[in-house]
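[Solved] Which block belongs to which protein?

Original post:
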Amino acid sequence: MSLTLSQQLYDQLRAHGEETYPHECCGILLGKSDAENLTVHQLLRAGNTRTDRAHDRYHIAPQELIQAQREGRKAGLDIVGFYHSHPDHPAQWSPTDFAEAHWLGCAYIITAIEKGHAKITNSFLLTGTTEDDKAFIDQTITVF
C-alpha cells in the first residue's frame, strides 16, 4: 500500500521540520484509504508536547487527535497517518517511534532534518491486527 500526496503537502511537512529544528515537529495526515493506497488530502500541524526531550521525541496531545478526527469527519476524511522529523538523525523509525505507534493501518512519515534542512523523507505503514503483531513496513511515497 503506497502513500500519495500533493507536492504542496509534501513540501509543507518538510518545511515544518525545518521550522522547528533542532526540535522534532509532528502532525496528522487526513485523507482516504483503500486497499491499494493511502491518499493524503490535508495536513494538520500539531504541537509537540514533549518538553523534556523535544530534540528527539514527540507527542501529540489527545485533544489535538480528537480535534483532527472532528475536522476530518466534517470533510469526509479520516486520520490516515502521522508525520514527524528527526533532527540530525536518519529518516528511519526508532525503537521509541515503534513502541509509541498504535494506529494500525496508518502511515508514519519521518523526515531527516540535517543542520536545519530537510533531506530524506520516508514513510512506514504500521501493519498488524494487534499490539502483539504490529510491524512497520517501508511504504512508497508518490508525490503528484
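(Second protein starts here: sequence line, then its C-alpha cells.)
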Amino acid sequence: MDHIFEQFKRTGYLHHAHIIEGVYEVVAPALVEAIAKHLNIETKGNPDLMERFYETLGIDEARELKNVQTRAGFDGARKIFIIGADSFTHQAQNALLKTFEEPTAGTHFFIIIPRAEMLLPTLLSRVLVVSGASAPEDESKIIAEKFLD
C-alpha cells in the first residue's frame, strides 16, 4: 500500500478518491497500516476514519457517504473513508459522481473493489485507480468455493 502515498511524500498532495482493486480482507488492513504510517493518523478509535464493507453498495449507502463526508472532521485535518464492496449499483455510482468530483476539503476516499471495470466510466474518470494486494491462493480458493455454494 505504500505506493499510494509516494506522490504524497513528494508533493504533500493526496488524491481525494482512490479505487483499489483487490480483496477487501487483504487490502483494508494494509491500507489502514499505511495511512497510520504515511499520514501520521491514529487509526484506532478515530472518528474521522470510517471503515465499512458492503456486499452491494446501494443508493442508501451512497447517500449516507455523501452526507457524512460533508460534515467537518473532529480534528479539523482529514476525513478518511475506507469502503469495500463486492459490487456497486448503478444508482449508487451516479449518486457518488459529484462527491468524487468535488469532495469536502480534506476528505479522502479509498474504495476497495474486486475490479475497477465494474464501475461506470463516468465514475472512473473522477478517481485514481490502483492495484492492491490480492488474496493468497488458499484464501482465493475459499472465496470461490463460498461463491459457488
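Accepted answer:
You had them paired correctly. Confirming on the second one: Residues 24-39 form the longest helix (16 residues).
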